[in-house]
Design a protein that fits this description.
twelve-stranded antiparallel β-barrel, two-stranded antiparallel sheet, 253 residues, single chain, FrrB, mainly beta, Porin
Length: 253
């Protein structure tokens, strides 16, 4: 699922400290920054999983001194597509980042089994937060961006997490490695996603360690007028676990 943490403010502050800029310039950076936008995508592919077709994905964020609060959503054009509403609270400094995300989906998902071995499904009502009756998934993230390589670890710690074969909470986790590069005038990104252990949260059911996503994407500014351009992106993704392949295109506004 897409979650953006704004690092610009922290990087600017550190740069100013290192270069000895005067205090008045420092004060200019001690302000709240906000952003709003939306992506239009041909398909919603998240961590190697197909969550829907053509979708609009709005975002809204606010940040201050490395702390950030972001809202992200996704709504497909088809009624059967997954609808999603996420809240992320994070902190980043010098490439290091941590965050907690509250994911909410409008679909019911398995949240355990009862005493008779029957699967318990979570409700899809937003304000239901019961241990076995919620559609919210709470995830913790920690990561570091080394520049040539970004490493992020994600673990579900509460809510409608996946389960193991014995019905116990899986604490479903995901390791993401991302490497950016430039080629042919485009900005490229190679992504590798790994599910480290058994869970029903990813790929329907994952019995153990597996590669869930291998992706190659590129972005480019499409010039509309002399003063206005629209960022466009395309990505090829394969999921070795499900043997699925996807090619998606999107525009950012």
């Amino acid at each position: 699922m897409k979650t953006t943490i704004n690092k610009k403010l922290g990087v600017i502050i550190v740069a100013l400290l290192l270069t000895g800029i005067v205090p008045s310039a420092m004060k200019a950076q001690n302000k709240v920054e906000a952003s709003v936008g939306a992506d239009l995508v041909s398909g919603y592919i998240w961590r190697g999983q197909d969550l829907g077709g053509v979708s609009i994905q709005p975002s809204l964020g606010i940040s201050y001194k490395g702390f950030s609060l972001g809202v992200w959503g996704s709504a497909g054009f088809e009624s059967s597509d997954t609808k999603e509403f996420d809240l992320t609270l994070g902190y980043s400094i010098n490439g290091f980042s941590v965050s907690i995300t509250d994911y909410w989906f409008n679909t019911q998902v398995p949240s355990g089994v009862d005493d008779e071995g029957e699967t318990i499904y979570s409700t899809n009502k937003y304000f239901k937060y019961g241990a076995h009756s919620t559609a919210h998934v709470f995830e913790a993230q920690i990561g570091y961006d080394f520049g040539p390589l970004a490493v992020n670890w994600y673990t579900n710690f509460a809510g409608a997490d996946g389960v193991k074969g014995n019905g116990k909470r899986a604490y479903s986790s995901y390791l993401a490695l991302s490497a950016p590069f430039q080629l042919g005038g485009l900005d490229w990104m190679v992504d590798l996603g790994i599910v480290p252990w058994e869970t029903s949260f990813y790929n329907g059911y994952t019995s153990g360690f597996c590669v869930s996503d291998i992706s190659l994407g590129a972005t480019k500014e499409i010039k509309v007028t002399d003063s206005f351009s629209v960022p466009a992106f395309a990505k090829v993704s394969v999921n070795p676990r499900t043997e699925g392949a996807h090619f998606t295109f999107g525009l950012s506004f």
